[in-house]
Amino acid sequence: xxxxxxxxxxxxxxxxxxxxxxxxxxxxxxxxxxxxxxxxxxxxxxxxxxxxxxxxxxxxxxxxxxxxxxxxxxxxxxxxxxxxxxxxxxxxxxxxxxxxxxxxxxxxxxxxxxxxxxxxxxxxxxxxxxxxxxxxxxxxxxxxxxxxxxxxxxxxxxxxxxxxxxxxxxxxxxxxxxxxxxxxxxxxxxxxxxxxxxxxxxxxxxxxxxxxxxxxxxxxxxxxxxxxxxxxxxxxxxxxxxxxxxxxxxxxxxxxxxxxxxxxxxxxxxxxxxxxxxxxxxxxxxxxxxxxxxxxxxxxxxxxxxxxxxxxxxxxxxxxxxxxxxxxxxxxxxxxxxxxxxxxxxxxxxxxxxxxxxxxxxxxxxxxxxxxxxxxxxxxxxxxxxxxxxxxxxxxxxxxxxxxxxxxxxxxxxxxxxxxxxxxxxxxxxxxxxxxxxxxxxxxxxxxxxxxxxxxxxxxxxxxxxxxxxxxxxxxxxxxxxxxxxxxxxxxxxxxxxxxxxxxxxxxxxxxxxxxxxxxxx
Length: 522
Known about the structure:
The protein is α+β, with helices and mostly antiparallel strands and 522 residues long. It has helices at 165-197, 200-209, 220-235, 250-257, 261-269, 273-279, 312-319, 367-377, 379-388, 398-401, 453-456, 463-468, 478-490, 496-505, 510-520, and strands spanning 6-7, 10-14, 31-44, 50-60, 66-70, 74-77, 83-87, 98-103, 116-118, 124-126, 133-138, 147-152, 211-214, 245-247, 283-288, 344-349, 361-363, 407-408, 416-420, 425-427, 436-443. The protein contains 15 helices and 21 strands.
């Protein structure tokens, strides 16, 4: 088999498939073995070492896992030489899962690895092959992409045939050209998003309202992959999905990891793109079906009997019961005794939402400031929320607390809404005939230490935003300066910027600020 490039005296190759493809592969034009999802750590082995492994699937050639061919047929992962092509528990029977496996604390322990041979028919088989198997494919009911397994070499329906020689070289040339085009697309998107988020009007809108829309931030191809995975799950049964379905599936996490959203987050909260990609370990699939949160008695518009009419009184009943995320409770599975706050909610639209009452996200603009002030003046409510998971000033208190009307977050697929953690929000009824597709991610700055300080100072961890759109701290009065100095002396482990934000949230009342700093630093 042709090796492609040479690296460290070893042959390097990607295991690219050639037609005819197995029936399970019906999504892409070019396929390869790809490493899917994160690297996992196994429990202790018999020899006291810890194993590491990663799932192998058949996916786009663009995402091909590169291997180094070493030591008479061992296939070592180029990007992580701790791992090599192995089978589950070393078995060689048909339907045994094939994966990347290695020993995490002993790099390049390749003498333990299985050896492979490249057969004349284009299949790849273990060198010691008592069962006559080769690499093949098996559909996985829990994932979009099929997984790699051993199959009988005579199984023409499922066995994998790999490119080699001139065919491989031609294949690789096409893939490399596709990669260059993809990189150019990413660079252009990153440049556009970067220029958007550093614009003063963008920053001022985000600070004033507590949320903002990033238009066309996620490429269509990523939207299609995510929707394919979601619809696959729907096809397996609606019970597999609800409004709180979290998944680490790579088709879902790619919505942020492979888009320009990490660039936006790095500009607004600090850090670099790689930090924010590392934060994205799972996403919440959030579907709103036609009829969700609609009246039990269906009313139809006189002019269009395909549309359900939502009365003002019904919507009032929905909007008054807003929430912020992270409050402990049975419904969300968050443990009591802690408010599970973060810094930014990122909502990705996977479908166009052009009309109100289509199951869209709704927010109260400015509520992040109003809630911070409310909790500053009512610290006992925070304690009740932490211990009992209840006590938000929603329901009849809503209209007295929030000065501005709720906004419907309409947009097109690929739009992303960035929402401060403290911004009150809810979901509108879905009176449309369509499913509202969205995925939500919750991320935190590197400064977020798990404490609740940002509840009182919503922008405290948004370093980039604060530099581009400063707050009013620069003109502190003499009294405020004395208070800041006193509080800084009382809490030497708390950053000065944190002290200033808490004091501002407490309207300059140093006693109240001290109480908050003591409570939040526990």
